[in-house]
Amino acid sequence: KKVLIISSSPRKGGNSETLADAFIRGAKEAGHQTEKICLYDKTISFCKGCLACLQSHRCVIHDDADVIAQKMRKADVLVFATPIYYYEMCGQMKTMLDRANPLYDSDYQFRDVYLLASAAETEKSAMDGAIKGISGWIECFPNSKLAGTVFGGGADVVGAIQGNSALQEAYELGTKI
To answer: How far apart, in whole angstroms, are the C-alpha atoms of residue 55 and residue 95?
Structure first.
C-alpha cells in the first residue's frame, strides 16, 4: 500500500513527528511504501472558500497544499500526526484539511485514516477534539474510516516522547495496516 504520512508539527523533530517516524518504521517493515510530508517547511495559505476546486478537483491557490492534496488523493492510507494545542489538532493540520477540499467528490484512493497525537497533557481525552475534527473531515469521504489513533501524553518539550509507550503503539499500528 501507498502510505502518506503528514506531520503537522510546527517544530522539526517534534514529539508528534517522532510518533510519525515510529509508525513509518512499522509500515516499512510490513512492506508498505511510505512518504512523509512535514508541514513545518511548507507554504500553505488559508482556503478562500471559492469552491472552484469542486469542479476542477484542484485548488486555485498554487502552493504546497495543492501538491500535498494531490498526493493525498493517490494514497491508499493517510496518517496525520499532530501536537495537541488547546485540546485540538494544531492549526497547520486544520489548514491542510481545509485545503484538501479538492478531494471531495473525487476519485480519492484512501480508505484508512490514522491519527497520531502528542500532548503535554497526560489524559487521553486531551485528543478528543482532534478525533472529532478528523472524524468530521472523514465523514465527507464515505469510502474512508478512522482506522486507528495513538496518543502520546506527557510530551511537553521536544524529545519528551522518548520512552513513551505511544512510540511502540505507533510502530505496531504501522505494522498492521
So the answer is: 21
What residue ranges in the chain does DSSP mark as E strands? 2-7, 33-38, 77-85, 88-89, 112-118, 145-152
For the entire predicted model, the pTM comes to: 0.97
What's the start-to-end Cα distance of the chain, in Å? 8
How far is it, in rounded angstroms, from Cα 90 to Cα 82?
6
CA 29/CA 42 separation, integer angstroms: 28
User: How would you classify the pairing of strands 145-152 and 77-85?
Assistant: unpaired
- Residue 41 to residue 146: CA distance in whole angstroms: 27
Task: Provide DSSP, 10-44.
Answer: SSTT-HHHHHHHHHHHHHHHTT-EEEEEEGGG---
Q: What is the pLDDT along the chain (177 residues), one digit of tens a residue?
A: 999 999 999 999 999 999 999 999 999 999 999 999 999 999 999 999 999 999 999 999 999 999 999 999 999 999 999 999 999 999 999 999 999 999 999 999 999 999 999 999 999 999 999 999 999 999 999 999 999 999 999 999 999 999 999 999 999 999 999
